[in-house]
Amino acid sequence: MPSADNKGSGGAFDPVTELDRAAERALRAAIEARFPQDGIEGEEFGLVRPEATRRWVIDPIDGTRALICGLPSWTTLIALFESGEPVAGLVDAPVLDELFVGLAGAATLNGARVQTSGCAVLAEARLSTTDPFILGEGSDAFGRVRRSVRVSRYGLDALAYARLAAGSLDLVIENGLQRYDWGALVPVVRGAGGVVGNWQGGPDLSRGDLVAAATPALFEQAIASLNS
């Protein structure tokens, strides 16, 4: 397994490997060659051309903890933002040979259209979050939702949102995310017919608190439970 440096602070372990850095360098170089006027924002090397209307947002390896543990759920995330809104997203899970692409009105898995499950009842939902122990002040709110659903699965990082788009999960709730964490996920979920908003039910994702749901009805029930 690749060795990891710790870029966290205050005792928190936030791993980064040379694979993270090398992947972002390669992606940046490819974008620079094709779209030299666009902005590029990445987890490892920051933002260039912040004034650009179009911006590519990269998480070279989402799920580095899974990578260093030899688990197959890590992904590469690429989003395209226009005027501050994510309009296209790519979620690549190379170990699983799964490539998800989301655009306005459509999402695909390895080129085939996918759609969400259609689950509209919280009690029947399959819920995921990366780690319920890192939700901080949101842990009690998340716990209310967890106790209301049929089943909960953890540790999937961005792959959970892709599996929601493909119909095998119904609800994902997380907080503390950065733009490079969620940018690619929004077009994939929405393109498959799902809903993405913040914990208050609004569209502003800048605080990094996300609820992704298979249907509007399920989204509304999850929001009500989070805020009850």
Write the layout of secondary structure elements.
Layout: E1 5-6, E2 15-16, H1 18-34, E3 39-42, E4 46-48, E5 54-62, H2 64-68, E6 75-82, E7 85-93, E8 98-103, E9 106-109, E10 112-113, E11 126-129, H3 139-146, E12 151-154, H4 159-166, E13 171-174, H5 179-182, H6 185-191, E14 195-197, E15 210-213, H7 216-226
Parallel strand pairs: 3-5, 11-12, 11-13
Antiparallel strand pairs: 1-2, 3-4, 5-6, 6-7, 7-8, 8-9, 9-10, 13-15, 14-15
Helix pairs in contact: 4-6
Structure report:
Helices cover 26% and strands 30% of the residues. By secondary structure, the chain is an alpha+beta fold. The protein folds into two domains: 5-113, 2-Layer Sandwich (Fructose-1,6-Bisphosphatase, Chain A, domain 1), CATH 3.30.540; 122-226, D-Maltodextrin-Binding Protein, domain 2 (3-Layer(aba) Sandwich). A hairpin with an 8-residue loop joins β1 (5-6) and β2.
Number of helices: 7
Category from helices, strands and their pairing: alpha+beta
Q: Average pLDDT value?
A: 95
| Biggest sheet architecture | 8 strands, mixed
Which fold does the CATH topology of the largest domain refer to?
Fructose-1,6-Bisphosphatase, Chain A, domain 1
How do the strands line up in the largest sheet?
Answer: 4-3-5-6-7-8-9-10
CATH architecture of the largest domain: 2-Layer Sandwich
Approximately how much helix is present in the residues? 25-40%
Poorly predicted segments: none
SSE string: EEHEEEHEEEEEEHEHEHHEEH
| Count of folded domains | 2
Radius of gyration: 17 Å
What's the shape? globular
The first-to-last residue Cα distance is 43 Å
